[in-house]
Write a structure and sequence with these properties.
The protein is mainly β and 161 residues long. It has 2 domains: 4-64, SH3 type barrels; 90-154, Nucleic acid-binding proteins (OB fold (Dihydrolipoamide Acetyltransferase, E2P)). Helices cover 8% and strands 39% of the residues. Strands 4-3-2-1-5 form a 5-stranded antiparallel sheet. A 5-stranded mixed beta barrel has the order 6-7-8-10-9. Strand 3 (31-36) and strand 4 (44-47) form a beta hairpin. The longest helix has 7 residues, at 48-54. It is elongated, with a radius of gyration of 18 Å.
Length: 161
């Protein structure tokens, strides 16, 4: 069984049943965000208990790519570096689709472009109140997978000027 305390962002892991490989992208108290190492697959948000039960470290590596020297004692989890605050022009659009069980959705901007957003780019309270059709304001950030909406926030009806 994998111990979450031994995992840092950037560590490669493998799902023990499917053999699919991922990189740990972000760690929270109750969830782990994984990015697949293959093109065409989507990020995976996994509860910590499931992560610990079903994933194993890929090879004998730890964060930074150095070899692990024996099992040793559990160490405190390293903090992920703080994300830079999103910068850029504020955009407006409507929520086109919500995929709540996976923690993401898509926005159709007023400019006609669709953009991905993930709940990790906003507070839980803000994510929980979003619904398809809601008007939102957001900032576009480039990621390794293309444009992504960050700092998504609901614009109450009547305040859409």
């Amino acid at each position: 069984m994998l111990d979450i305390e031994e995992v840092d962002p950037g560590v490669p892991v493998t799902h023990s049943n499917t053999g699919l490989r991922y990189i740990v992208t972000d760690l929270a108290d109750d969830e782990v965000l994984l990015t697949p190492d293959k093109e065409g697959m989507q990020d995976l948000l996994v509860p910590v208990a499931l992560f610990e039960a079903e994933f194993v470290l890929s090879g004998n590596y730890r964060a930074g790519g150095t070899r692990r020297k024996g099992k040793g004692k559990s160490r405190a989890r390293a903090q992920a570096p703080p994300r830079p605050a999103p910068s850029g022009p504020k955009m407006k659009g409507r929520i086109k689709k919500m995929v709540r069980d996976r923690g993401f959705g898509f926005i159709r901007g007023d400019d006609g472009n669709e953009v991905f957003f993930h709940r990790s780019g906003m507070s839980t309270a803000e994510y929980d109140v979003l619904n398809e059709g809601d008007v939102v304001e957001y900032v576009i950030q480039e990621s390794g997978r293309g444009p992504r909406a960050e700092s998504v926030r609901n614009i109450p009806a009547g305040a859409e000027s």
